[in-house]
Amino acid sequence: MEDFEQLLESFEQQQNQASEGEVLKGTVLKIDGEDVVVDVGQKSEGVVRLREFLDAQGVAQVHPGDIIDVVIEREGGERGLRLSHEKAARLRLWDELEHAHEQATIMQGRIVERIKGGLACDIGVKAFLPGSQLDVRPVRNLDAFLGQEVRVRIIKLNKKRGNIVVSRKAVLQEDLDSRRSQTLETLAEGQVVTGVVKNVTDYGVFVDVGGLDGLLHVSDLSWGRVAHPNEMVQPNDEITVKVLKFDKAKLRVSLGFKQLLPDPWADARERYPLGAHVHGKVVSITDYGCFVELEQGIEGLIHISEMSWSKRTKHPGKIVSLEQQLEAVVLDVNPGERRMSLSLRRALPNPWETLPERFAPGSIVEGRVRNLTEFGAFVEIEDGIDGLVHISDFSWTKRIQHPSEVVKKGDKVRAKILSIDVENRRLSLGIRQLEPDAWENFFATRQLGEVLPGKVLRLAAFGAFVELEGGVEALCHNSEINPEVTGGGALQVGHEYEFKIIKLSPGDKKIGLSLRAALHDQDRELLDSYRHSPATAGATIEEHVSRKRAGNEPSA
Question: How much is the pTM?
Answer without folding.
Answer: 0.50
